Amino acid sequence: MKKLTDYSIELENHPTKDIQDQHANGSLSVIWRDWDALIDDPKMVYVSSVNVSERKGPHIHTQRNSYFTCIHGKVVFIIQEKSGNYIEIESSADNPVMVIVPKNMASAHVNLSDDVSKVLTLADIAWRPNDNEMTNISFDDYNWNKWKSN
Question: Can you tell me the distance from the alpha carbon of 61 to that of 47, in angstroms, rounded to the nearest whole number?
Answer without folding.
Answer: 17
